[in-house]
Amino acid sequence: MADRQATAPTALFTAALQELAQEYPTDPVGTATVAVTVTDPTTGEQHQAQLQPGQIEWLTSLVRDELTTTRAAHSDGTGRCGHCTGTGTAGGR
């Protein structure tokens, strides 16, 4: 069980990325993919997901929106969600 706990976060993360990429393509069929590799710091085991360039852009936007939300949640922040900008609707920019 200790080995599974050491590798589970990296394996689960890349598996989730790959599932997202397969279920929600963003680019035309045949577009070259980008290999995203995550290395487990304990075991050195590498896990890969293949993402389309549009998926990389999408995930970058998601992370930036989450950063905005986190900053806005501070006591001196706006309190507005970075994903919906307080509208309650996804992508409410």
How would you portray this structure in words?
This protein has 93 residues and is of the alpha+beta class. 45% of the residues lie in helices and 13% in strands. The protein has two helices and two strands, in the order αββα. A two-stranded antiparallel ribbon has the order 1-2. The radius of gyration is 17 Å and the shape is flat.
Distance separating the two termini: 45 Å
Low-confidence stretches: none
Mean pLDDT: 84
Beta-strand content bin: 5-15%
Helix/strand order, N-terminal first: HEEH
Overall 3D shape: flat
Task: Give the spatial strand order of the biggest sheet.
Answer: 1-2
Helix tally? 2
Largest β sheet strand count, sense and barrel closure: 2 strands, antiparallel
Number of E-type strands: 2
Helix content: 40-55%
Assign the structural class, choosing from mainly alpha, mainly beta, alpha/beta, alpha+beta, or little secondary structure. alpha+beta
Using only CA atoms, what is the Rg?
17 Å
